[in-house]
Design goal:
- The complex is a heterodimer of chains A (147) and B (396).
- By secondary structure, chain A is an alpha/beta fold.
- Chain A contains 3 helices and 6 strands; from the N terminus they run αβααβββββ.
- Chain A has a 5-stranded mixed beta barrel.
- The termini of chain A are far apart.
- In chain A, 31% of the residues are buried.
- Chain B contains 14 helices and 12 strands.
- In chain B, the strands form 2 sheets. In chain B, strands 1, 3, 4, 5, 6, 7, 8, 9, 11 and 12 form a 10-stranded mixed beta sheet that branches. A two-stranded antiparallel sheet of chain B has the order 2-10.
- The two termini of chain B are 33 Å apart.
- Classes of the chains: A alpha/beta (147), B alpha+beta (396).
- The interface between A and B is medium-sized, with 33 and 30 residues.
Chain lengths: 147, 396
């Protein structure tokens, strides 16, 4: 039981990152800040849309701030600074929906990396687990989002 | 004489009910194994047969139709796009490789696909390599000097009987331009096995409309980006254009898998009902058999057999029936799956590994034997409660 509780506590220890933080961490010369690099090798959770640019078993996909559905009517597509290359652990069991936000947790890597199959990337998540992001805050009448 | 020997002798002593019960279990297992194998095989066939290109670019149409036609050689072709679409993509600095593809008619049901030799080139990111079983690849001939050479996929060559040097055509409009087989591909485990390839130059020359066109038509362009992160921007640019659409093939397949999952859930419910029916039949059969031999059981008890021995014997009988039915069902299930895979292949679908041995067989067998023993539990309790004095009393 103690081991389970310790495991749960560990699971909650994952650093939560946003795409805004990823953008802020990238400099004009494609260098990444030391603060962001220091997260490499640590477990990180990022929420975003899945772009299935790899095989259909989702062993690899792009995680983006913007959905790839339709013609991107509301948002222009993201670039290198807002795209995370995700390699998943075995057995992704999600039902893919291009309009849903997914919670992706895995071992984070920041910095330029060239892969023979997927080319150059700046941000990566390895051994990642994917689940639908639920529990988004609903603001009732009179409530305002905290800034 | 062991309990197992007694159980076997008893089953042999009543062959018809035993065989009927085994057959009913086998039919249920056959249905389950065939369904699971085919459902998994169809999904695996799509996974293994899909393309390594990131985007399929074609005319405005259904994305599913575009991917099914261009990647899996199913469905009808989408409308044409201009050759300039290919040229623009090939010149785009974000694009690593762009391959033009034109989908043609068919020879004995095997689709003609016109493309360039780059389609067959080895790349570090490709899971498949194209190797020749015989001959050579078709030449990239210019539109004004078509050679009408054909490169035949492994399944197409086997099914049509085409060999090196054969000249062939189907339909009157092709009679003027028979193709010559210059190469036969080794199997790739994809829809390319069911394809007859030719050069774009030869394809345009055989096509009356394309012959007169200044800018030649294509069905699609297969695109591989240098950087994956450039794909969303490429995807958008091609989709906002009035003439083209770009599709992530994996996105289409994932949508198809979502639909398959619904069908699989329905099948799982049907299989659960079938399983319950078979289980009830086994229970009724064993219960009836036990009722019919209460006198025999009482005799065995009188001769020294313990209650535990009697219970074990009834459970072994049920387990043996389930085991025989399970083994026959697994064999039958794979035979049905194999036949189904062949039938679906004729309609263009790839069902992967219908005879594969893996975790399914031991899991199914263990489940069937376990459920069989469970079905034998009630008759076993009945046998356990059989009173010697009551059933050996003389009948008047």
């Amino acid at each position: 039981m103690l081991a389970l509780l310790a495991g749960l506590a560990h699971a909650d220890d994952a650093q939560h990152l946003t795409f805004a933080q990823l953008v802020d961490a990238m400099r004009a010369n494609n260098e990444i800040t030391n603060a962001m690099r220091s997260l490499s090798g640590k477990e990180v959770e990022i929420q975003g849309f899945i772009i299935p640019a790899g095989p259909p078993d989702l062993s690899f996909f792009l995680l983006s701030r913007v959905s790839a559905l339709g013609n991107y009517c509301c948002e222009v597509p993201t670039g290198q600074d807002e795209t995370v290359y995700v390699a998943t652990a075995r057995g992704v069991t999600i039902t893919y929906d291009p309009l849903r936000v997914y919670k992706v947790r895995g071992v984070f890597e920041a910095g330029k990396h060239v892969d023979a199959t997927y080319g150059v990337s700046m941000y990566r998540l390895r051994n990642a687990k994917v689940e639908v992001a639920t529990g988004a805050k609903i603001f009732r009448v009179g409530e305002t989002p905290a800034r | 004489m062991t309990v197992l020997t007694v159980a076997l002798r008893y089953l042999r002593a009543r062959p018809l009910p035993t065989v009927l019960t085994i057959v009913s279990v086998a039919l249920g297992v056959t249905l389950a194994v065939a369904t699971l194998t085919l459902a998994r095989g169809v999904r695996q066939g799509f996974l293994e047969g899909t393309t390594d290109y990131n985007l399929v670019v074609g005319a405005k149409a259904s994305p599913t139709q575009l991917v099914l036609n261009v990647v899996f050689r199913m469905d009808t072709a989408t409308p044409n796009i201009s050759y300039w679409t290919f040229r623009h993509l090939a010149d785009d600095p974000r694009v690593d490789i762009a391959i033009p593809v034109a989908m043609g008619d068919a020879f004995q049901g095997f689709r003609y696909v016109a493309t360039t030799s780059e389609y067959f080139a080895a790349q570090p990111w490709r899971r498949r390599t194209f190797a020749l079983a015989a001959g050579r690849f078709a030449r990239d001939d210019p539109a004004e000097q078509p050679t009408f050479e054909a490169l035949v996929g492994a399944d197409a060559a086997r099914a049509t009987g085409l060999r090196l040097g054969d000249r062939f055509y189907e339909g009157e409009e092709m009679a003027e331009f028979p193709l010559t087989v210059v190469g036969i591909l080794q199997p790739t485990g994809s829809s390319d096995d069911r394809t007859i390839f030719m050069s774009l130059g030869s394809f345009w020359a055989t096509n009356e409309v394309a012959r007169k066109m200044q800018v030649k038509p294509l069905t699609a362009v297969l695109v591989r980006a240098k950087r994956m992160s450039d794909l969303p921007a490429l995807h958008r640019a091609l989709n906002v254009s009035a003439e083209t659409q770009a599709v992530f093939p994996s996105a289409v397949l994932l949508e198809i898998f979502n639909l398959l999952r619904v069908a699989e859930d329905v099948l799982a419910m049907i299989l659960a009902v079938v399983g319950i029916v078979v289980l009830v039949y086994l229970l009724v059969s064993m219960y009836g058999a036990t009722l019919a031999r209460t006198r025999e059981i009482a005799t065995m008890r009188a001769l020294g057999a313990s209650r535990a021995t009697i219970v074990t014997m009834v459970l072994i009988e049920a387990g043996l029936i389930a085991l025989a039915g399970g083994v026959l069902g697994i064999l039958g299930g794979h035979a049905v799956a194999y036949a189904g895979a062949r039938a679906l292949a004729l309609r263009g679908a790839i069902v992967a590994h219908p005879l594969a041995i893996g975790w399914l067989q031991p899991v199914v067998l263990a489940t069937v034997v376990g459920l069989g023993a469970l079905a034998g539990l009630l008759p076993a309790v009945l046998a356990y409660r059989t009173e010697v004095g009551e059933h050996l009393a003389p009948t008047s």
